[in-house]
Amino acid sequence: GMTIFSAMADRQPDLFLHSGDVIYADGPLEERVTLPDGRIWRNTMSEAKSKVAETLDEYRGQYAYNLTDDNYRRFNSSVAQMVQWDDHETVNNWYPGEILDLEQYTVKDVDLLSQRALQAFHEWLPIAPTEAVDGRVYRKIAYGPLLDVFVLDMRTYKDANGANTAASGEILGSAQRQWLIDELSRSTATWKIIANDLPLGLVVPDGKDAQEGVGNGDPGAPLGRETDIAQVLTAIDRNDVTGTVWLTADVHYTAAHHYSPERAAYQEFREFWEFVSGPLNAGAFGPNDLDGTFGPEAVFVHAPPEPNASPLDAFQHFGEVLIDGDSRDLTVNLCDATGAVLFTKVLPAA
Question: Which DSSP symbol is given to 77?
């Protein structure tokens, strides 16, 4: 089973931020998988996991499958959750307007698939109507005077996957970008956690020549989707917004990234930290290359030596964030699937 959920439940967290890829709608399972070293991995099977999801009921079946796991049900019954979506809720590396050329799909129109996927997402992981305005995923969740969480959607409004080197581009879209800038400026919380479902400074390829994420592999001035993020980072600086921390996943390993204008080609921002933590139960990969535009440094990385490492190899991860009520300092622990702490960073309150 997905024992990492029991390890997280044992910590009795106040809330859980799920950075997306709650399901793998594009990942049919096999009952028995032989690992590279000869060990056998066995999967519990269901009809929904026998093929890629295309119909609404097949997307629903992906969520139902997760709930067959005792660890997952225990966690869900005891921990409040903030959930965003990434790509695998629909199909790997998807973007609006995409037409699939994958033979396992009868439905090739990704816009149609994403509509069905979004409906299933909202049905199984409901968001309060006051937060999910017009059914959107991005939202702000206030959690007392010490914490505001800004949950982003870097899927629904992104440009097509390509070289990502145009003079401008979007991954948030103009409305969400301005919403984030305005809400961060208005926030009085000590800590503003920004939940970005795609990392800011990693190169995430989609095939040989296309880019899936923010970075494009060019360490120079912002291009493509980087220009969208540059506007947010500059606004944070100009509006004197303090206490921003970015939490992300998508890539299948854990890392601590420090961004500094002193290392960056684009310098109109203030330094910040981004913490990567995943996967929860999928195969582990990585690490990805850094893109130097915003000056990231990988201060810590825990990734498997070989790709697609199963949970038997101990490269699945979760992150833990603690805020001290007296000092208001924020501590981030990056943990393995058993709950052992691999890395700790303490950030002092402003």
Answer: H
Do residues 111 and 223 make contact, with C-beta atoms less than 8 angstroms apart?
no
Place of tokens 């992906």: 62
Q: What pLDDT, in 10s, does the model give residues 321-332?
A: 999 999 999 999
pLDDT tens-place string over residues 1-10: 999 999 999 9
> Please, which residues bridge with residue 341 across strands?
335
146/152 Cα distance (integer angstroms): 20
Q: How far is CA 68 from CA 41, 43, 62, 115, 279, in A?
A: 18, 12, 11, 25, 19
The structure tokens listed for 127 are 């968001």
Question: Could you tell me the domains of the chain?
Answer: 4-347 (3.60.21.70)
- State how far the Cα of 297 lies from the Cα of 300, in Å rounded to an integer: 9
- For helices 174-186 and 226-238, what crossing angle results, to 10°? 20
Structure tokens at 75: 């966690």
Tokens of 2: 């997905």
Q: State how far the Cα of 153 lies from the Cα of 195, in Å rounded to an integer.
A: 9
Q: Which amino acid is at 127?
A: I
* Mean pLDDT value across residues 216-232: 98
Q: What is the pLDDT of residue 110?
A: 99
Cis check: omega of the bond before 279, within 30 degrees of 0: yes
- Please give the Cα distance from 171 to 54 (Å, whole number): 25
pTM of the model: 0.97
* Cβ atoms < 10 Å from Cβ of 142: 11
Structure tokens given for 111: 């816009």
pLDDT tier at 70, thresholds 50, 70, 90 = very high
Say which amino acid occupies 141.
I
pLDDT digits (tens, 9 = 90+) for 152-211: 999 999 999 999 999 999 999 999 999 999 999 999 999 999 999 999 999 999 999 999
- Within 13 A of 196's CA, how many CA atoms are on the CB side? 24
Q: How far apart are CA 242 and CA 270, in angstroms?
A: 9
Q: Kind of pairing, strands 32-34 and 40-42?
A: antiparallel
